[in-house]
Design goal:
Elements lengths: L9 H51 L9 H4 L10 E6 L5 E5 L11 E9 L4 E6 L23
Antiparallel strand pairs: 1-2, 2-3, 3-4
């Protein structure tokens, strides 16, 4: 008499391995994009204080001018982290965030730009991330990798 307890056949095991391989081929790139988006969000978080300083200076300015440098905005010249290579304020109050290389998807020096626009009718300053509101300059980070707050 044969023992009723049997293991898996070789074919069954190979089918399971094939299914796992297909799932991993889809999941790993998606996970890498997710982690890069999370790291890019760090740059946007570092820019929060600069956005506040620029907005305050513009609203208090009698001549309606934007600060055009880190010093004029009252923020440090060296704002960086393990992910962010630098944060600079340029003409028109535009903030440029430069990044270090990440997982072969973001090159050293790729950028995200934050462009302010003053709405006189409401007295509010709106910020466009990589030109997502129809104004401003696009940065060099791929649109696919941008955090949700920066996507068009």
């Amino acid at each position: 008499m044969r023992d009723p307890v049997r293991g898996f056949t070789l074919i069954e095991l190979m089918i399971v391995i094939a299914i796992l391989g297909i799932l991993l081929a889809i999941a790993i790139p998606a996970y890498q994009d997710y982690t890069i988006r999370t790291r890019l969000s760090e740059g946007l978080n570092l820019a929060t204080s600069a956005k506040g300083a620029i907005s305050e200076l513009r609203l208090q300015s009698q001549s309606g001018t934007w600060p055009s440098s880190n010093a004029a905005a009252g923020i440090p010249n060296t704002i960086d982290s393990s992910v962010v290579a630098g944060l600079t304020v340029g003409a028109g109050g535009v903030i440029t965030i430069s990044f270090n290389a990440m997982a072969g998807r973001v090159a050293q020096g790729d950028t995200i730009t934050l462009t302010p626009t003053y709405r006189a009718s409401s007295g509010v300053i709106e910020w466009s991330c990589n030109g997502n509101k129809g104004y401003g300059t696009p940065g060099s980070v791929s649109t696919v990798l941008l955090p949700a707050s920066c996507r068009p």
